Amino acid sequence: MRRGRFTGYWLMLPAGLWLALFFVIPFYSLLATSLFDPQGSVLTGYDVDYRFANFVDALQQFWEPLVRSLWYAAVATAICLVLGYVLAYAIAFKAGRWRTLLLVLVIAPFFTSFLVRTLSWKLILADDGFVVDTLQFLQILGDDGRLLATPVAVIAGLVYNFLPFMVLPLYASLEKIDGRLIEAAGDLYASPTRGFLKVTLPLSKPGVVAGTLLTFIPAAGDYINAALLGSPNQRMVGNVIQNLFTSTGDYATAGALSVILMVIIVAMVMLYIRTAGTEELV
Amino acid sequence: MTGLQRAGRWIGEHLVLAAGLLVLVYMFVPIAVVMLMSFNDNSESRNVYAFRDFTWSNWANPCRPDGMCEAVVRSIEIGLLATLVATILGSLAAFALVRHDFLGRSVANTVIFLPMASPEIVMGSSLLALFVAGGFGGRLGFVTIFIAHVMFCLSFVIVTVKARLSGLDQNLEQAAMDLYASEWTTFWRVTFPLVFPGVAAAALLSFSLSFDDFIITNLNAGQTVTFPMFVWGVAQRGIPMQVNVVGTVMFLISLFLVVGNMLVTRKRAAV
Question: Is the pTM here over 0.90, yes or no?
Answer without folding.
Answer: no
